[in-house]
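ok new one. same drill as before - structure tokens go in, u give me an amino acid for every spot. 91 of them this time. try not to just spam alanines like last time pls lmao
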């Protein structure tokens, strides 16, 4: 592989790393499991099983990554989670 190809590969890898962000959901003492699960299904396009697993991870570990992707996709989703009363942020 030549120098040019190595440089292009490196740039693509860096671009891929930069574009990936995560929505992290944090535990609280306010929301029910049912509300969290329903919200994750609607906002993050989770299956019922995925949403239930995430809600259990949040409950036991204090936080869980619920969606990974580009910031432009995650920002409106995170806003909807916050509007639903959940505690989330993009990292």
């Amino acid at each position: 592989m030549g120098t040019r190809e190595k440089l292009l590969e490196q740039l693509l890898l860096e671009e891929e790393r930069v574009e990936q962000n995560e929505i992290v959901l944090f535990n609280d003492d306010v929301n029910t499991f049912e509300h969290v699960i329903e919200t994750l299904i609607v906002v993050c396009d989770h299956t019922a099983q995925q949403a239930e697993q995430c809600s259990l991870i949040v409950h036991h570990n204090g936080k869980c990554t619920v969606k990974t992707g580009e910031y432009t996709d995650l920002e409106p989703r995170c806003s909807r989670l916050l509007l639903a009363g959940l505690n989330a942020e993009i990292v």
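Strands lie at 21-26, 63-69, 87-90. and btw The chain has a mean pLDDT of 92.
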